[in-house]
């Protein structure tokens, strides 16, 4: 199943499915945590007529990356497994994985925070994520898990396989990007329509 909702002009996209007999897999992202990135690419090697190695000028490419929170809830476990990821059209990279609620931010962009996605997940699940003073989720204590790239190769491979088995892969990443782009376009068209109607009347 899928759902989307707006919050402060940002779109939150949440997809959920049952996996096996006792798991619910939920993926959450938002336009609020999308960023444009520049990829300098690679220089292509060529051999000129005199046998010398030369490099073609590379083209700077601009793309979009976003943050993705995967929550895997087992009926037999009190807390979900959370996997924090960065994704674009070409795949999903894991940043951190831990059991239970955490708020660590993403490794590649210290200015972005996973808090938005945790809050969206917990809010839609009907759970209270705010403290007594109603502070946002940034006040939650950080997870104690290490960054994903500090885990041994076998453990990293296990987590990647776990996500792939549950459909969190390149195909899903490409689909989510298409959906977010479409929803942003619809939001923009709706804005123009309302503005035109206001001016006309």
UniProtKB/TrEMBL annotation:
InterPro entries: MAM33, MAM33_sf. It comes from the Eukaryota. Gene3D superfamilies: Mitochondrial glycoprotein (3.10.280.10). One of its GO terms (cellular component) is mitochondrial matrix. Transmembrane segments: none annotated. Pfam families: MAM33 (PF02330). Residues 128-147 are annotated as: Disordered. PANTHER family: COMPLEMENT COMPONENT 1, COMPLEMENT COMPONENT 1 Q SUBCOMPONENT-BINDING PROTEIN, MITOCHONDRIAL. This is Uncharacterized protein. The lineage of its organism: Eukaryota, Cryptophyceae, Cryptomonadales, Hemiselmidaceae, Hemiselmis.
């Amino acid at each position: 199943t899928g759902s989307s909702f707006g919050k402060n002009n940002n779109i939150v996209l949440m997809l959920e499915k049952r996996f096996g007999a006792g798991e619910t897999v939920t993926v959450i992202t938002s336009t609020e945590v999308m960023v444009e990135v520049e990829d300098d690419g690679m220089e292509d090697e060529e051999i000129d007529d005199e046998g010398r190695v030369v490099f073609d000028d590379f083209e700077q490419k601009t793309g979009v990356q976003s943050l993705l929170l995967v929550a895997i809830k087992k009926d037999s476990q009190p807390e979900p497994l959370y996997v924090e990821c960065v994704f674009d059209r070409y795949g999903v990279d894991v940043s951190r994985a831990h059991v239970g609620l955490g708020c660590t931010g993403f490794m590649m962009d210290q200015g972005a925070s996973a808090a938005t996605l945790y809050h969206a997940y917990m809010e839609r699940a009907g759970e209270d994520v705010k403290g007594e003073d109603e502070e946002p989720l940034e006040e939650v204590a950080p997870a104690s898990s290490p960054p994903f790239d500090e885990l041994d190769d076998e453990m990293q491979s296990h987590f990647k396989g776990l996500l792939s088995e549950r459909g969190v892969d390149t195909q899903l990443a490409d689909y989510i990007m298409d959906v977010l782009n479409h929803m942003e376009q619809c939001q923009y068209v709706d804005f123009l329509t309302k503005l035109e109607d206001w001016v006309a009347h």
